[in-house]
Amino acid sequence: xxxxxxxxxxxxxxxxxxxxxxxxxxxxxxxxxxxxxxxxxxxxxxxxxxxxxxxxxxxxxxxxxxxxxxxxxxxxxxxxxxxxxxxxxxxxxxxxxxxxxxxxxxxxxxxxxxxxxxxxxxxxxxxxxxxxxxxxxxxxxxxxxxxxxxxxxxxxxxxxxxxxxxxxxxxxxxxxxxxxxxxxxxxxxxxxxxxxxxxxxxxxxxxxxxxxxxxxxxxxxxxxxxxxxxxxxxxxxxxxxxxxxxxxxxxxxxxxxxxxxxxxxxxxxxxxxxxxxxxxxxxxxxxxxxxxxxxxxxxxxxxxxxxxxxxxxxxxxxxxxxxxxxxxxxxxxxxxxxxxxxxxxxxxxxxxxxxxxxxxxxxxxxxxxxxxxxxxxxxxxxxxxxxxxx
Amino acid sequence: xxxxxxxxxxxxxxxxxxxxxxxxxxxxxxxxxxxxxxxxxxxxxxxxxxxxxxxxxxxxxxxxxxxxxxxxxxxxxxxxxxx
Amino acid sequence: xxxxxxxxxxxxxxxxxxxxxxxxxxxxxxxxxxxxxxxxxxxxxxxxxxxxxxxxxxxxxxxxxxxxxxxxxxxxxxxxxxxxxxxxxxxxxxxxxxxxxxxxxxxxxxxxxxxxxxxxxxxxxxxxxxxxxxxxxxxxxxxxxxxxxxxxxxxxxxxxxxxxxxxxxxxxxxxxxxxxxxxxxxxxxxxxxxxxxxxxxxxxxxxxxxxxxxxxxxxxxxxxxxxxxxxxxxxxxxxxxxxxxxxxxxxxxxxxxxxxxxxxxxxxxxxxxxxxxxxxxxxxxxxxxxxxxxxxxxxxxxxxxxxxxxxxxxxxxxxxxxxxxxxxx
Lengths: 390, 83, 329
Fold this sequence. Notes:
The complex is a heterotrimer of chains A (390), B (83) and C (329).
Chain A: E1 2-5, E2 15-21, E3 28-29, E4 34-40, E5 43-48, E6 53-58, E7 65-67, E8 71-76, E9 122-123, H1 125-134, E10 148-149, H2 151-155, H3 171-188, E11 191-199, H4 201-213, H5 223-236, E12 242-245, E13 248-251, E14 257-259, E15 261-262, E16 268-269, E17 272-273, H6 281-297, E18 300-301, H7 302-306, E19 310-314, E20 333-337, E21 341-347, E22 350-364, H8 370-385
Parallel strand pairs in A: 5-18, 9-10, 14-19, 19-20
Antiparallel strand pairs in A: 1-8, 2-4, 2-7, 3-6, 4-5, 6-8, 11-22, 12-13, 14-17, 15-16, 20-22, 21-22
Helix pairs in contact in A: 5-8
Chain B: H1 3-17, H2 32-35, H3 40-54, H4 69-78
Chain C: E1 4-8, H1 9-23, E2 27-31, H2 47-51, E3 56-58, H3 63-75, E4 79-86, H4 87-90, H5 94-101, H6 104-107, E5 117-122, H7 137-141, E6 147-149, H8 154-166, E7 171-176, E8 183-187, E9 200-203, E10 208-212, H9 217-228, E11 234-238, E12 241-243, H10 247-257, E13 260-267, H11 272-284, E14 293-297, H12 306-312, H13 316-327
Parallel strand pairs in C: 2-3, 2-4, 4-5, 5-7, 6-7, 10-11, 10-13, 13-14
Antiparallel strand pairs in C: 1-8, 6-12, 9-11
Helix pairs in contact in C: 1-8, 3-5, 9-13, 10-11
């Protein structure tokens, strides 16, 4: 039997509130399936399972606040026998205040035997079907005043979703989370900084030619070849890509690049695009666009928030020349870019005008040092000189 | 289409891309980037939506002409957008 | 944009009769008071003078006799339009309709066909009391071998007759007696024939489906209009054909709205509404958010006093109540 525990979705998270189960006991699950929605300071996050099997029992109820690391469900492998009916109820932290979930059921039956639901109300066929579609437990739905659970009652069960936009995210909470993470970063990580001004005229020229060939929907933002170049450069300096856990560095096999994305109205979040080094530019552009849309729509996945191995903070246009960012623990580096602008440049003894970009690397001095960071930047510069090879 | 109708089209296209701009007042000659918090991703999505709504392809070098509401209206007129 | 003209239901029926008589010399009209009197509901006014006694035939007061004669004429190659003054009197001709018209094709192994069209006025609402206010559409809709239609609009009253006359088998057309004076639109020119196979969505909506026919259509539309003011959007389906029923149209709507209210002026027990309800249960159970509701006449002989007649038959208020019931608001 596999124990599925409340995951940590941020450096400073110690508990999450279960909003709803998206699978019920008896459902088959595969690695990557989204099994539940959890509310954290960063908003409502969909959490994924990492194993194949069948969901055996759920041990937390919608509305419950569960500490990170506690078991919230059990998954049995295909050939295992089912667990005891009604697994041990979870010892919970104090019940969450009015969570944006279904109201807690009148009877505290754990959700392990849905074949015999204890329903005290009539459920319409349409409601039953819709609840099944949405993975909502019927016993947890409050019936209408006449005792009937109809479509209206099922639809009223609050679910985070793109149609609700970022309503589920409290900016207050998000800023608190950022404050906690940044304070921890500043407190615990000995930062050093290395910067380099890079001539990106070849990059821009290449990009303009590339985009001129493409219709509007297929065009690339300059961040895309830049991210690609960063990923390739990181391959040569693996000390910048990974996690510092339990006082040692764990290098990462792939580059899962966190992209710092600003939310309108304040709030910054850095979900990761996984295995960036394997992605073509078109695919990278699609993923970037999708990520930005989902950040703005309040719909991220747990793997995106916890699997970043390095972060890229691009201030973008119309902003400052240089940024010296703070590392997101437990990562060990962060790369920041200022704005691309025409600046004076010296070439062959003469002053000319080139489009340049200042790239800064902040590193965790416990794991890497200025020399490695400088090597990274130098490799980056080399890559950006021939953008066609990216 | 009249200028007013073109302006409506531009506004609604931008709002489709950035729904939280719904209800904002659009100053005709202020650069979008300064008026609202829109970044290069938003603007690219806006150009794409405009392209899809009007069928007009927008070369990158023309992006500068589409920085304001009045700029967009003038651009669409110049490109002969009738619909 | 095709031009339309506004005429009464009665005018539409008359125009349809004239067109049918002009198009096909085999067509003739027969029934009580259709000739000299111009029709009990004035639908054949002036036709005797226009077409003569051979084609506009006044019959004796004997439904069983003249319906039988009509069936005989049809068997003999004519295209009779038999007018039975009201469905109430058709009871006297049931044997001819059910045992001859409906069965001769079957019993003759296809050798015989009865291309008869029977028109009847039907329904309550004019204080004609218990014996003259029946809605027996469901009884006829129960019988295999005949087609049953109920034109509820002026356009359908104008267009259904022609199509019915083309059918080689019996067609019964029910004209609700309260519709004759109502005005409606038909196209100014062109082919006005309509099909007899499909229901029509008279008002689109999302929250509930009102399914009805004949004289109850306008009550459903009035109810839908009143409910719209409260933010409840009703889809109104005019069945048009009662046998066969257009299941596809009914289910398509109910699957979308999840709630069905059937409005049928017959009595609830053994009604057409009961049949439709059973079909909805069979074909769309899992789409229902509430039991199917039926608004029918009270199970009493239809009263004579106006206020009791109104209370005994479906009305916009009771339809509204039923819609709110299935919405649980």
